[in-house]
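Customer escalation, tier 2.

The customer says the design service returned an amino acid string that "doesn't look like it belongs to this structure." They asked us to rerun it and document both sides in this ticket. The original structure tokens are below, unchanged.
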């Protein structure tokens, strides 16, 4: 009873963690891209 439920819970947590970190990485890359474009415009 407990072992299978625990395994399911761990899998759910891992999926959530990977999804969350991928979302964070995407946001960071977008932010870096925007700042780079602004830096290029200002530097020009």
């Amino acid at each position: 009873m407990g072992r299978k439920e625990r395994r399911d819970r761990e899998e759910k947590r891992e999926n959530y963690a990977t999804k969350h970190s991928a979302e964070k990485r995407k946001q960071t890359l977008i932010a870096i891209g925007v700042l780079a474009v602004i830096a290029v415009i200002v530097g020009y």
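Tier 2 assessment: The sequence is consistent with the input. The CA atoms of residues 11 and 35 lie 36 Å apart. The mean pLDDT is 90. Sent an explanation to the customer and offered a walkthrough call.
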